Task: structure prediction
Amino acid sequence: MSIIDEILSQTDAEQIRKETEHNYREYVNPFALRMFKNASLDIIEGKREGASVWDISGEKYIDCVTGAGIFNVGRHNPDVVDALKKALDTYDMGGWISIVRERGLLAKKLAEITPGDLKYSLFCCGGGEAIEVAIKLARGHTDRPEVICMDNGYHGVTGFALPATGREVYRKPFAPLAPGYKHVPINDIKAVKEAVTEESAAIMLEPIQGEGGIVPADDDYLRELRAICDENEMLLIFDEVQTGFGRTGKMFCAEHSGVTPDIMVFAKSLSGGLYPISCAIFTEEISDFLMAHPFIIINSFGGTSLACLVALAAIEYIEENDLPGHAEKMGARFMKGLSKLKEKYPELVLDVRGKGLMLGMEFPEDSIGPRMAYQLRQNGVISIYTFNNPRIIRIMPTLVITPDEVDFVMKAFDASLKEIQAQEDKLKK
Amino acid sequence: MATSEEIMEALTDFTEQCNTNKRLRRMQRDWTKLLHYVATDTGDSFTMEVIEGEIIKNEAGTNGTPDVVVETDSETMCDMFWGDLNPTQKYLRGEIKVKGTQEDVMRIDAITAVIWPEV
Result:
């Protein structure tokens, strides 16, 4: 029996849990295991389908985390799975020193579906790597070092991406970091203007801050950023890792404001939740830097045959099923429910916000986010607070969620808030 | 209900456990905080000062501006300092109230995980 047959043939949930927890404790990360268990998020995923995931014990949950936007096409989407299965009959990842047909096809597709004149694609595996590509291109193109980023922004934790991530707690233990990064508050145009110098290469931000607490950049603010970049011959970079591929009700969040960046970065849902792939797409003008240095940014596993085929299948599914349109409708249904809960629990719920199916609920203090995550698990929903702002619980389900499933999540939120309100009242006494 | 003396005794034991644990001291070497502990049922309160992972002072009353405030009943507070319960589980169930950052909550849990791994 092969190792894979052996793993898949195990069906005793209790035995699997025991073995997995042991392996985590001994060989992966005992403290992470403890945190998962404490938070009641110690789900070992078994079956995955649509908006739902089942623990190996058979308990069903609606997934409202989705890896912060990996599973836009749904968990274990059968069409995308089928594409990968078919591809595996012929393909492996493909050679690094060769011309990859599927990479060309995906790049062409991305040029078609992204806004404005974004054209050339450079592929990697994860979001942080693609952010690094964007920063390198900005510096290479402009011959300037400085990148202006947002407080509380999140762009990953790799070498060039980490200093862009706007929170000290991620950066401090790893100093000295790459220099040349400035942070300003989001939606504060005056702060950006003050930060711009002759050394500024780019402004980089998420159109909606994900880990920062589901904070949308205002449309007017984005337009002003575009103007500042044009005026100062700087580049505008949008990190659409979480917001891309229909999540916010449009194929890309940039479309809401009509502002086109010079470089757009995406990852997560480009993979269909099945095969790692990320991308930085940029304009022809910026490509001049790469023409002079065609192999200066390379990646063994970036844009492999298999990854590109999966991405093409995922995009096809998103388009054919109008997932952006569905996300907009389901997002409106969520917002209606969330607004009612804000009225019902005025002491607990300060705000509800977001676009499409990238939504957040804000609480008055840090402790309530983790406590909500705990309560939601008891009520059949997986969710987690945003990492840069624990006062916000995120609602980011798959884009195939049904109206009935939205209503189920709303009932779970109501029950969880009711319990926390009771806890708060008890503590006050 | 636990008395002020019992809580201070538990706090003293806890301090010794923390300060003599080399692994913990190294792990928490970048953690400098002022913590207030408030017993909600008796009104007793305590201040703990931590500098670079070492608890350098425990005293009755709330002194200084805290980074973290922990509120719970006196019995739970004693149990917490004696390692008879998992504070994070109690926190997530709303039985211990922590005013502070989530990072600090994780640091407090890390202390428990090192000195009482079975809890």
